[in-house]
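Researcher: Go.
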Amino acid sequence: MTKETMLFCLIGDPVSHSLSPAMHNSAFSSLNIDAVYTTMLVRMEEVRPSLSTLRDLQAKGINVTMPHKKTVMEFLDKVDSDADKIGAVNTILNENGKLIGKNTDSIGAVGAIKKKIRDLRGKKAIILGKGGTARALEYGLEREGTEVTLLGREEMKGEFLNGLMVDVDLICNCSPLGMDGVTNPVPVKFLDSRIAVFDAVYGTKETPLISSAKRHGCMTIGGEEMLVRQGMSSFELWTGLKPEERVMLEALRKERDRRSRRKDRNVYLTGFAGTGKSSLGKRLANELRMRFVDTDDEISRRMNSSIVQIFEQYGERPFREMENLVINEVSEMNGAVVSTGGGAVLDLENVHRMRDTGVVVLLKSDPESIVERLEGNPARPLLRPSSGDSILGQVKKMQYMREPYYRLARDLEIATDGKTVEAIARELKLSLGGIE
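Model: Structure:
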């Protein structure tokens, strides 16, 4: 990455399962575009500040996934007419600092379905779910002349479906059901060979709905086909160039297969100094029987100097260059717990490598707790009083400056104040169990 590298990002909650980075980065590479696509975990209360962060970082384009496709609309400078009618935005363009909302889900979903069903006019479709993807598909199908019924989660239960499933031609799952790899949102009694089944959910293997539909002879359309087609539309809006469908689909499937084969992922611990990365990392690695790497210790070993001496003798830049090299090498490992330096996330290349090869965990503590833990510690070269600032003032200032980068990097976030290392490790292990 260089200063000229363009940034593109997916925001949502969750996002760690997404295959979009592999798909878009492959397309950028094939067209010799200097750009990188990453993901950013965004809680509901963080939508507005996260958009501001991405604007400040001059992100050229943003994708939006659940549950923010509707919420995001109120924080944009403009929403185009199709997205406004759908009531959901999944694609944002940054035009000279103005964020413009669009929707490519409708194009992607209908395009994927029409590869199997050429003429949708007069067909009867049931859509499970009432979120942004469901509304986009409803909009697209109705424009094709399809009769559409949307069902919420309560309406998908029990005998209510019996009367609705008569003469249905197409069943579409646009709900999160099936992301766990177990739940099938459609009772098998409604599946037979005359029905086509579309599932917007995708993962490292077939969803339960698609597997069940195939067993009953149904025509099936998987979520990855929609993902590629909506991604192609977003890509063209951002760059003005049309990517090859083959390139994006192959990259998506390759990444999906890689994840399904890979048993061991790295766990990267990020956060400000004093949040407990090293002590937690050592304990976690011991409990999970994984290798432990502390990037600051590795840098000190290679440069044969303490971190303080490195900063005093050479300045910050050589330290960051070595940090980048170490993280690059660690990212080639499988099954390591890695404690990173507090400023590692300032380099987007580090963020990209960590997100691509493992789970990034942000440890958070209040400034007062950090100062208490670091009091009297001379090994923190960036935390020395200057210009009349107290240590607390410096911590607050640096936390504020780094917060956008921490949010961009994280897959998970854990507060550490008032908790033992044992309790934090236990909480983290439970959280890791839910990440793909």
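Model: The longest strand covers residues 6-12.
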